[in-house]
Design brief:
Elements: H1 7-35, H2 37-56, H3 64-96, H4 101-130, H5 133-153, E1 159-163, H6 166-173, H7 176-203, H8 210-237, H9 241-259, H10 272-303, H11 310-341, H12 344-373, E2 393-397
């Protein structure tokens, strides 16, 4: 912001990235089999590394429009390659350990949360030492080194990957409980986008520096990463997915009343410790609803004939990630734009309104579903095969 860039440019960068990942997540399910999992992984890493280094070089521009325009172009390429990286990595993992695919999914989700936690902390420390360019340059070099390792050390993985049949997917997309899960995932993604785009602005009032701010980010996202497996255990033992699903937007809206200097509550937020506590509650609440959404999606997919195996998990993961990143992008652009024209108070109010609206929409959808089918959902089938007329189509991966 020191060079006069608008906060809305930050939001636009988040939106562009989120929309591209949203569009490319399912697209790469066709690209990966065509060019191979290992090749997709390596190419994605190399291009992502180049993009990170290029983004760091934007420090040397003094024109806000050039920064925003070129930054958006870089984010488009990054989003496309990140989607390819996630799809290829996920496919390699599931084909390597098909009998423990759910453990692989948990590992990937945990590492994503850890990345959210460590990223701001490390980047903040590097920024304090060498300003804007070093964090991006170092990340780009590390990703390129990963590509070099993958070229020599990553094994070729081949096998068959089942793609859901059209009939299965159509019924799943029109299932009310599944739609409600997508709505809540979008709501939680918006919270993530709000935090990423504007939390630093809020923390500036405490004048603690970028390293301290990075530490706060680390604490918040570490709490989310640690709590996700715990929510998974709860969901596995108790049928509370609908409750936890709807509880998320409520928790986020209530916490943001205190967390974000909501009008009339500013005097409560003079202590940094209370802000950190609210951040932890926000991230844990986000993890809670996201895990409940995944659980609901898997159960509904199983109900409509998608087998309880790596196929189902890969398909659900693509939908979940696409919706999450779309919400992240929308949250970034909305919060950045509101911050440009109004204030951080207005940012928190807008988030509360969005969460309440999406929560009400999801609750109404689930109520209609309850009136039709009742609360209980069928247990996941024990057989790892598809049945019925809508069988999945199998393709061989290079």
């Amino acid at each position: 912001m020191r060079k006069g860039y608008l906060y809305s440019w930050i939001g636009i960068l988040f939106l562009v990235y989120g929309v591209v990942v949203f569009l490319c997540e399912l697209l790469h399910s066709k690209i990966v089999p065509a060019i191979g999992t290992k090749r997709t992984f390596i190419i994605s890493c190399v291009v992502l590394g180049i993009c990170d280094i290029s983004f760091g070089l934007l420090r040397f521009t003094t024109n806000g429009n050039v920064f925003g325009g070129v930054g958006c172009l870089i984010r488009v390429v990054e989003g496309f390659c990140y989607a390819g990286l996630m799809n290829s990595a996920f496919t390699i993992l599931c084909l390597t350990i098909p009998d423990k695919a759910i453990l692989g999914i948990g590992l990937i989700d945990g590492l994503i949360g850890l990345g959210y936690a460590l990223g701001p902390l490390i980047a903040g420390a590097l920024y304090s030492v060498a300003d804007f360019t070093l964090p991006f340059a170092l990340m780009g070099i590390l990703i390129i080194l990963v590509a070099i390792w993958a070229y020599f050390g990553l094994p070729h993985v081949s096998g068959e990957l089942a793609l859901p049949g059209f009939g299965d997917v159509k019924m799943l997309y029109t299932d009310l409980a599944f739609i409600a899960s997508v709505v809540i995932t979008l709501a939680m993604g918006i919270v993530v986008g709000f935090l990423e785009a504007t939390l630093e602005v809020y923390l500036n009032q405490f004048h603690k520096g970028v390293v301290a701010e990075g530490t706060i980010f680390f604490i918040g996202w570490t709490a989310a990463a640690v709590s996700s497996p715990l929510w998974g255990v709860i969901l596995a033992r108790y049928r509370v997915n609908r409750t936890l699903l709807l509880l998320g937007p409520v928790v986020e809206a209530i916490i943001f009343i205190f967390f974000g200097s909501f009008p009339g509550m500013r005097h409560l937020m003079v202590h940094l410790g209370l802000s950190v506590l609210c951040l932890i509650l926000l991230t844990v609440g986000t993890a809670m609803s996201l895990m409940a959404a995944v659980d609901m999606m898997i159960r509904r997919a199983s109900h409509y004939g998608l087998a309880n195996d790596i196929v189902t998990y890969a398909f659900i993961s693509a939908i979940w990630l696409a919706t999450l990143y779309l919400g992240e992008g929308l949250g970034g652009i909305v919060s950045g734009t509101v911050l440009d024209f109004y204030s951080y108070d207005a940012v928190t109010v807008s988030l509360i309104i969005i969460e309440v609206i999406l929560g009400v929409v999801a609750a109404a959808i689930l109520y209609v579903d309850y009136r039709r089918t009742g609360l209980s959902l069928p247990e996941l089938p024990s057989e790892h095969s598809l049945s019925g007329p809508n069988k999945s189509e199998y393709i061989r991966l290079p």
